[in-house]
Amino acid sequence: xxxxxxxxxxxxxxxxKDEIIALAKTYDRFAKSKSFSNLVIIQSKINWEKIAxxxxxxxxxxxxxxxxxxxxxxEENFEVLKNAKTFACRxxxxxxxxxxxxxLEGSMGDMISSLSQAKVNLKxxxxxxxxxxxxxENFFGFSKPDEISKRPKKVRKHPHExxxxxxxxxxxxxxxxxxxxxxxxxxxxxxxxxxxESMGIKGIGLDFDEKMxxxxxxxxxxxxxxxxxxxxxxxxxxxxxxxxxxxxTDLPYGTASxxxxxxxxxxxxxxxxxxxxxxxxxxxxKGFEKKLNMNPSxxxxxxRHKSLTRTILIK
Length: 315
Ligand SMILES: C[S@@+](CC[C@H](N)C(=O)[O-])C[C@H]1O[C@@H](n2cnc3c(N)ncnc32)[C@H](O)[C@@H]1O
Prior knowledge:
The chain is an alpha/beta fold. It is built from seven helices and 15 strands. The strands form two sheets. Strands 2-3-1-4-8-7-5-6 form an eight-stranded mixed β-sheet. Strand 10, helix 6 (about 210-220) and strand 11 (about 230) form a beta-alpha-beta unit. Helix 1 crosses helix 4 and helix 4 packs across helix 5. The two termini are about 30 Å apart. The structure holds S-adenosylmethionine. The site of S-adenosylmethionine has 22 residues, from strand 10.
């Protein structure tokens, strides 16, 4: 079974790792994973590019060609360069050993040049060859330079809006696929819907505030997106359960964002109405979740500043 590697940014490492694993399992329920520091190795029939396109916190990704015990590579390891005109070598050292990385990269480049037709090009290579060292295992793999993926535009913002990375990771953690529909019953400026639609997932958003409704519509329109926005109370989602596959939302905190009623009462009502069989990711102010009878399968705390830590609940 092919293996792929993902080097993650360390900002929200637990979220980042779980996102990769959730995405792999979304497309291949038999996918297996292991991790070393900020490296995740996925064993699955899914191509790494499919996961990397959706994932939020990936810095480098590629396909593992083989595991290595030493530094011995032969001609057969460079098959991948058969059709490449140019390449670059990169060493990623996640082990506690010290290496002369520029020196190693240089000698690997010389060795590959002598075994293949491809020439070194550090600026714009067709293929990048990776050697990844960890304290447990070493991996030899390759990647292609990232295509710069287009981010959805947001022409109108608001102080209470959710960081797009957190919206995206929540959608990915609950395993929604292209063609499925997400509902955000407190959609604000449409962050969830913009991220969802940029990944081919349809959206339905609700917000009781006229201003938010207008902002959401504008943000979707400028991207040519077709998610549906309804001006109204969140409770309307309960009448539309057959129209969506999952809920991703960021609840009102009663500070920067308006709330139609006491946020704690509103959240209790919302949770009591949640459908049983849908995929659900909810963000709320840390502490609120204790008052809810939600039994999440996983929670993540996200520190923002000294008076705000948020919690993501996955069900
Ligand atoms: C924390 S904000 C959501 C922010 C949003 N995720 C974004 O990125 O812009 C909560 C939203 O809930 C809306 N809201 C408050 N009470 C509501 C209710 N009863 N029904 C629907 N929306 C409500 C507010 O207008 C606000 O836009």
